[in-house]
Amino acid sequence: MEGKYLTVTALTKYIKRKLSADPHLKNIWLKGEISNFKHHSRGHMYLTIKDDRARIQAVMFAGNNRRLKFRPENGMNVLIHGDIGVFEQFGQYQLYIQQMEPDGIGSLYLAFEQLKEKLHKQGYFNEDYKKSLPKFPENIGVITSPTGAAVRDIITTIKRRYPIVQTTIIPVLVQGENAPGSIADAISRANEETNCDVLIVGRGGGSIEELWGFNEEAVANAIFHSHIPVISAVGHETDITISDFVADVRAPTPTGAAEIAVPSQLDLADKINGMRRSLTRVITDQLTASKQNLNRMKQSYAFRYPEQLITQKEQELDKYMERLGKAYQLEWKRKYESLTHLNSRLVALHPRQQIERTDKELKQLTKQMTYLMTSHLEQHSDRLQKALEKLSLLNPLETMKRGYAITYSATGDLIKSVKSVSEAEQISVKLADGTLNCHILDIKEESNGRGE
Question: Which residues does 217 contact at the CB level (< 8 Å), separation at least 6?
Fold first, then answer.
């Protein structure tokens, strides 16, 4: 019986071989809705394809999803091409996706809208980041195909409008899988290696697939980070690309880009002629005004009668000299009186007199302080002597000198009453000049202090 049982691994491998050998499970074309979408950090995509009645697990490995032109999302209806296989570890069948496109909308259009929304949120289209084009450029960089009609139109238009500008052609691929990298590298290289004042990036018209190189994020990043102003000139006026939104200026055609990049020499000549006419008119008006002013000066009194004018000015000068002399005398007198007044104040406030007054006050204060201190000391000496006399009267030793004594018990307690001792008890009698040790022979109590 033991040999009849299969392992789970063996059964799963058998089922996998059966499914893998079934031609009906190869090259399956499937239509459904995406759910549970997950884009793994290693690049693989895991998702569920479902309709209203069933669902199937699916995986699209990084090698296949790298070519997608759109970003799959939950709820998106898609068209899928792939194979059915078994994931042995979990014992489940799943769809291995090789190709995937949106259902009902072109993948390129969807990819365009998704990238447009992403860059818009990142601020790539913000007008605050747009750079102004130079009015009179010296070197223009043209990033396009060197063999297309666009480059010829740009060069012809620039030479016709502004022939003194230098044009640098930076050849790139403008369509195909390698076009985005070629365009982005050319923009970065132009910022590092050339002295261009403005860049024209574009190509002639074509289908959306042919223009797709200008809809890639790499090209948008290169344009956005360029410190040289960029004019986008892709296709015809109706063709809109991501580079048109990111560029500093969008031109409807390559020829239009050339017209935007450089001024017209005819317009400049008209402006110069207009400025020349304005300058001539201003100079003529100034010359006329100057001549009129000169004629008025020639007819003036000073030029017609110069000697009388000089005599008149001499008289005026004498008056001014006289007024100046009087003013000088008055000012000198005022300054002298002010100086005299300040000198008298200085004498009155001389430091010597101030020192003498202060010294006299100091001596007087010293004398008063000495008197007050002596008087205060005598008062305190008298108070101290009286206190010593009172203290002497209250001193028990002085009392004992008059024949009084103090009696202590054997334990050293002061005896105040005959009731606190007994006969034959030893006591100590303290006299002024010594101590007597005694025994009590008899106790006689007096109630009135007279021994009665």
Answer: 115, 118, 119, 242
Q: Which residues, listed in sequence order, are joined to residue 38 by a DSSP beta bridge?
A: 46
Q: Which amino acid is present at 214? A: F
Q: What CATH number should be reported for the domain whose range is 4-105? A: 2.40.50.140
Phi, then psi, of 104 in degrees rounded to 5: 95, -5
Alpha helices in 22-163 (DSSP H): 62-65, 107-121, 149-161
Asked if domains 4-105 and 136-263 share a fold, the reply is no
DSSP character string of 312-336: HHHHHHHHHHHHHHHHHHHHHHHHH
pLDDT in tens, 36-95: 999 998 899 999 998 888 999 999 999 899 888 888 988 888 889 999 988 888 888 899
**What topology does CATH give the domain 136-263?**
Rossmann fold (3.40.50)
Residues in the chain, overall count = 452
Cα Rg of the chain, angstroms: 62
Reduced to 3 states (helix: H, G, I; strand: E, B; else coil), residue 169 is strand
Structural domain spans, the chain: 4-105, 136-263, 400-439
Asked if residue 262 lies in contact with residue 165, where contact means CB atoms within 8 angstroms, the answer is: yes
3-state secondary structure of 428: strand
User: Model pTM?
Assistant: 0.49
